[in-house]
Amino acid sequence: MISFSNIWKRYPGGLEALRNISFTIEAGEMVFITGHSGAGKSTLLKLAAAIERPSGGSIIVNGQNVGALRPGAIPYLRRNFGLMFQDHKLLFDRNTFENVMLPLHVNGFERREAARRVRAALDKVGLLAKEKAYPITLSGGEQQRLAIARAIVHRPAILLADEPTGNLDAGYAADIGELFRSFNQVGVTVVIATHDEALAARLKPRVVALKAGVVVS
Amino acid sequence: MNAWLWSHVDAFVTTLARLVRTPVATLLNVGVLGIALALPTGLYVALANVQGHAQALAADPRLSVFLALDAGRTEIVRTGTRLREHPGVGSVRYVSRDEALGQLKTRTGLADVVDSLAENPLPDAFVVQPRDAAPQALEQLRDELRGWPKVAHVQLDAMWARRLEAALRLARLAVWLLATLFAFALVAVTFNTIRLQILTRREEIEVAKLIGATDPFIRRPLLYFGAVQGLAGGLAAWAIVAISLYWLNGGLANLSQLYGTPLELQQLTPEDGLSLLLFSAVLGWFGAWLSVNQHLARLDLR
User: Fold this and answer.
1) Which of A95, A98, B181, B269 has its CA 20 to 30 A from that of B52?
2) CATH number, domain with residue A159
3) For chains A and B, what is the number of CB pairs under 8 angstroms?
4) Closest to A180 (Cα-Cα) out of A105, A106, A125
């Protein structure tokens, strides 16, 4: 489903974030990409979603070579993914409902059907009672769950999450882990970049460990 | 197709909502655009009014053909017939020198002076109504008649109208110049409004792009915003001109009573008004388009 082959990523200034990375993620798998900060975890996720381009090598997503896509085709590639960002990227001038509505709006869903799906997603993460609340009034764990709802509302085949449990206490992190497990159980491919070992111990995923831009296990 | 149409309706509604959500900024922007557009529009209407009057006056050009003082009876008759048979001549009226003197006497109140003259100094004349009122045709006819025997002088009565026409042409040029300048101002104002929109909605645009929004999806509301703002500016300009004319007509009614002639300024015609709206909407769209191209390309994803 996602295959990285001989990926290099160099940043201007000579920093090599990734060095000759090759591995494949099958459909329906749950994969953790682990490593210290700066090991290249986030970069790998960004390459898959064409947010950044590799300096060398190729990435195939659903049979499409990401590096060779026309700019006009990239939005459609991204719609395969549910993306969770390290900094959430919630919109603070919109309430919970409107935040989750955004991907459906982008995907051109009809309004009534979209509202139904938004409520289903909010229900799934336990935020249905807070659909009118603004993100600033939500706790850290709630904001994280809101980010999850936004990532899965358009029912993507692949969920890419960057440090989804960063800065959360253990109880919240366990809740979030359970959510990921339930998505994986209904067939969603889940790829998580994290250094949270407790989460890995709980979910028992396949682990791809990065160290200084190289796969070590 | 349905989704496409829906996305346009949606962009339009979003645009209106954004305009309504910031009423003061919207009002000020639309006001600036309205005033900028009202200046050339007002001048255009003023010009159209003057032109209307000038055309009514100049529509009836005549040539006065004065014969030489020594022209005899037969020459007068021959010239008259020749004039009537000329293809460029509509109608001809003969004014004998005695008749002209009589008119001079009764109309000007110069009876004493005229009576004191030893002999009639006026020539026999024909007043010619040409078939073709175009300035060039008139001049051609004048030059031709000048060359006829015993014709001393040909006067083209519409000369002043032609001078006015030339002055109006100049004024029309000024209107276009002004319109161009203010069109540029409209584009600049829209450009900046959209730049601000992009800056303040930067996060939203970024997130939308990250979750798979196409460029047209992001551009559409911004382009609509430019077009709708331009259109509102055009409407404001139309309203400013219409209200100003209404006020001026109130003052003119007073003046025209004193002068005894009906004076009334005509409003912008519906065709011209709609052209104004179309023009301003297109310019607003164009300003937004320029801005979107400039600023969205620089918005890199992180």
Assistant:
1) B181
2) 3.40.50.300
3) 50
4) A125
Q: Please tell me whether the overall predicted TM-score, pTM, comes out greater than 0.80 for this model.
A: no
- A89 and B215: CB-CB below 8 Å? no
Domain carrying residue A179: 30-54+70-205
Say if the Cβ atoms of A108 and B214 lie within 8 Å.
no
Contact B210 A76 (CB under 8 A): no
Residue B301 contacts A, CB cutoff 8 Å: yes
**B62-157, what's its fold?**
Alpha-Beta Plaits (3.30.70)
User: B207 and A110: CB-CB below 8 Å?
Assistant: no
Residue A63 lies in a domain: no
Residue pLDDT, tens place only, A68-102: 888 889 999 999 999 998 888 999 988 999 999 99
